[in-house]
Amino acid sequence: MLYINGRFLTQRMTGVERYAYNLCKAMAELHQPFTLICPQAPIQDCYDVSTLQIIHYGRGNSHFWEQCILPFFFIGKKNYVVLSFTGLGSILVRHKIMTIHDLSFLENPKWFSKAYYWWYKVMTPLAVKTSRHIITVSEFSKREILRFYPFLKEQDITVVYNAADSNLFRPLPEVEEPQERFALAVSSLDPRKNFARLIEAFQNIPDCMLYIVGAYNRVFESDRGQVPVSTPSDKESDRNLSPVRFLGRVSDKELVRLYNQAVCFIFPSLYEGFGLPPIEAMSCGCPVLVSDIPVLHEVCGDAATYFDPYNPYAIRKTIQQFLATHPSPITHHPSPITRFSWTASAKTIISLLKEKFSDQHN
After folding, report:
1. CA 42/CA 62 separation, integer angstroms
2. Tell me: the pLDDT tens digits for 248-275?
3. Does pTM surpass 0.85?
4. What percent of the residues of the chain are helix, what percent strand, and what percent coil, each to the nearest 5?
């Protein structure tokens, strides 16, 4: 019997939750039977679970539920496998597959709060050692896992890529002309996303605004107070205040509109496990400018323009060169990124289960 840790359904949809949700949908569409186990907490409205089999067990939706409550569900059960797509999973559950999206907390602890860093520093190796297999989201992340946890072997880890939902992220047949020319950046606002340097680079770029979509999270050691942002406004005085507009969280529908209206998408991240926003932008036909880091070469290939993310001058020069050769409006055409799809990733999961757990998930 296959179970999936459904705690993510009680949380807002960010990158890892989107990964879990779309894999569940794709597996259901491929008629792979499974049951999501969720806490008693309400399921967030952003998830359509009408086609998913869900059971609720235990109260709370914190790490305590995952580590201390969920294991009781499996007492006395045999022939089961538990998938955790968003992280650790319970270290007390024997037959499980966990997902490691990235190891940024080990790469640079200063990016995170001390509580977050120590929790994952202690718990991740315990979860790894008590898992039957590891899923990760890129070959880069696989190499990082082997680097930080050398007791693992390559065959212990399977790469299951992210993807963009092609039914959602696509060029729109009709899109309203924006009131001002803007470049778009999308991410949680934490230090490794490198928005401070991007904003510095944008201070001397004329005739183009920078719209930032994302929210602060208390788990990060944020540069919040150093980011000069304002909200969109038609007032000329507000436009002169800063070249940056902070939009906070937006709906998926609004995000697709922004991808379609933007003159380009900029992703200045210093470290990623995969980097989903550039794929979403390319699926909408939006040109992408991204950090020159290994994982983004793996993900974006020749479909992106690269810059040195540590050098604000290099970021500014890349943006200026792009804007000079791409006057608005830009006709949006999706980039050739068909190698990433949720169906293909779900098939990888199903093949993994058949290979290693055929006697436990049927």
Report:
1. 13
2. 999 999 999 999 999 999 999 999 999 9
3. yes
4. 40, 15, 45
